[in-house]
Amino acid sequence: MTTAVMARALLRVRAMTTCTRPLFLLLACCACGSPGDGEFCELTPAIADAGADQEVFTGSTVQLDGSGSQAETLIVFDWSFASAPAGSTARISGSSARPTFIADRAGLYEVNLVIHAGGCISHPDTVTIAAGVR
What we know:
2 domains; five-stranded mixed sheet; 15% helix; disordered N terminus
């Protein structure tokens, strides 16, 4: 394949996806999805694992655990609340594998974990935290 043909193929591939893997992987094996689907990889997937559901008392510090997540490259953890009890001002303390938050209201907290690894994004995994009064 000539350099010009490779350059045109690369431009077409880049127009179809925003995968950030190196060129040789991009052309050979990057199975990132089509535009708009969030760059989910099929061949070497990043797999988020938000840990086990938990039951805690209101006011407790909740330790999230994404250490079971799997990827072949460096992982960036992206935690977010999918839902929280009305009036909650809980905030997740960072983007590590094991961040915390304070369950400031009674009710259910649903927390999503998405991992970013090697230019690909995992499907979200959700953990549910049930906070109750003492």
